[in-house]
Amino acid sequence: MSRRWRIETALSSVLRERNIPTLDRLISMLIAKEDPFLADEVVEALLNNETYFFRDRTPFDVLARDVLPQLAHARRDQRRLRIWSAGCSTGQEAYSLAMLFDEDRERWKDWKIEILGSDVSQKVIDKARAGRYTQFEVQRGLAIRQTIRWFEEEEDGWTVAPHLKSMVRFETRNLLDPQGARQFDLVLCRNVLLYLCKDKRRQAFDRLASVIASDGALLLGAGETVIGQTEAFAADRDIRGIYRPAALQAPARRATGT
């Protein structure tokens, strides 16, 4: 009952604007595919797009202190990194990653950094691409000094500076769809899997495993884990909160036992 109430609350604007009397009638319309745009409106209404810059700061500290230096060493010959922020919402996470690299410019000098932000919602991706945020959105997670460094002030808000935008691109993408052959060195998929049922969560892990480099890293949300969810990933033995492709971890476990 509680879950149905939350769904009705989230969809109240759709019901009102479409003049649909009940949730059951809405479901019938979706099943019958009476309106090709209705499903998109429902998805937009149900999505939780809560985000802010450097959300839950600790994971970004872990990336800066442990994960990125490891990747810098492993990719020192190619001098190229590909990172995917899956479920990026309005883009703050992807831009926060770009800020990490900008904070350590000397290390990443002459590197090609490619950050992809994706979300199923076209609405939030459009906002992320624009890179324009209100004063309230910018001050959530950023100090004044950082705001001045990474944004250009406009009459009604702030726009991400061009040198950060050049590192980031955005696209509409469903995590459950086939992901192609692109290999990412680091994937952030935070607070997305919580909303999936067990079977869909396993499918999502498989999709992530198909595009992450064999020595790459996966970062999940604080309330998420791979334990009991998938065999495609295993917890990193040294870095808490980081997960690695299981094939990478397996040889080390066998070697320990000999």
UniProtKB/TrEMBL annotation:
Record EC number: 2.1.1.80
Organism: Sphingomicrobium lutaoense
Entry keywords, A to Z: Methyltransferase, Transferase
Domain of life: Bacteria
Database matches in InterPro entries: Bact_Chemotaxis_MeTrfase (IPR050903), CheR_C (IPR022642), CheR_MeTrfase (IPR000780), SAM-dependent_MTases_sf (IPR029063)
Protein name: Chemotaxis protein methyltransferase CheR
Enzyme class: transferase
Cited PANTHER family: CHEMOTAXIS PROTEIN METHYLTRANSFERASE (PTHR24422), CHEMOTAXIS PROTEIN METHYLTRANSFERASE 1 (PTHR24422:SF21)
GO function term, MF aspect, one: protein-glutamate O-methyltransferase activity
SMART domains per the UniProt record, alphabetical: MeTrc
GO BP annotations listed: methylation
Domain CheR-type methyltransferase residue range list: 1-233
